[in-house]
């Protein structure tokens, strides 16, 4: 069975600081991995996805994530946080591309 | 394109009542799904469909029913509402396909309270 663990339900960074949101997954087959973002009172929006074409994946709004098979990780980073990055971030895994299994989410707070 | 639309936005039900949450998409997507979001638990899959006439259960299907008579619509029925079904419900759609990492598009959500 697949599962996703997101370390840290809340992360707080200063504006301009590095953003690091952690995601570890469990999957019995090579997984498809995703990061979605949810702004308050909205649905989810795709930030980026891993498809096995490249281990470093670039997404929208300056975010990127690196797939590390040996560590079963897919951490999300952004070099410099902006106030508009404050949101909840979800890591998700899929074995076949259809059904998504989500982590519990990480709320990112950006301090001015 | 309106994308994925959901109605209603908010709903309050009494225990035992039934209702249908509506979901529609105008992107001609084959894959549609329903999730519920609860604090600290992320999103959990309720039911999904890979095309008109085909539905299957997700992780938490009990108490919910779905049907898919058209490509565009995927309603979620609560048969007899319980307080445990208080949640935010999201509908999502995607082009579908096995062994492809495609984007799923989410609706704005329906916030349901069962008293």
List its salient traits.
heterodimer; A: 112 residues; mainly beta; six-stranded mixed β-sheet; four-stranded antiparallel β-sheet; 12 strands; globular; B: 115 residues; seven-stranded mixed β-sheet
Q: What's the number of helices of chain A?
A: 0
Largest interface: A-B, 27 and 30 residues
By helix and strand content of chain A, what is the structural category? mainly beta
Give the structural class of chain B.
mainly beta
Number of strands of chain B: 11
- Low-confidence stretches of chain A are none
Average pLDDT of chain B, rounded to a whole number, is 95
Q: Could you please describe the fold and organization of this structure?
A:
The complex is a heterodimer of chains A (112) and B (115). Chain A has 112 residues and is mostly beta strands. Chain A contains no helices and twelve strands. With 115 residues, chain B is mostly beta strands. Chain B has no helices and eleven strands. Chain B has strands spanning 4-7, 10-13, 19-25, 31-37, 43-51, 54-57, 64-66, 76-78, 87-94, 105-106, 110-114. Classes of the chains: A mainly beta (112), B mainly beta (115). Chains A and B meet through strand 5, strand 6 and strand 11 of A and strand 4, strand 5 and strand 9 of B.
